[in-house]
TrEMBL record:
Identification of the protein by name: DUF3606 domain-containing protein
One Pfam family hit: DUF3606
Length: 60
């Protein structure tokens, strides 16, 4: 995930960028799913982290 302040930093807390290797690794590990599963879920339900987690039955 990128570091910084302001809106862009908050965006990364709420949204998953599947094209950013750091985001992909972070969220895959946090959700306990593979990178491929994460990519597929984001394409299916969108980039919002809470929605992706809910799709997998996980509460953030």
């Amino acid at each position: 995930m990128t570091s910084g302040t302001g809106t862009s930093a908050r965006r990364h807390v709420r949204h998953i960028d599947i094209y950013c290797p750091n985001d992909l690794a972070h969220w895959s590990q946090r959700l306990g799913i593979s990178d491929a599963q994460l990519r597929q879920t984001v394409k299916l339900v969108g980039t919002r982290a809470a929605t992706v987690a809910a799709h997998h039955g996980i509460s953030l």
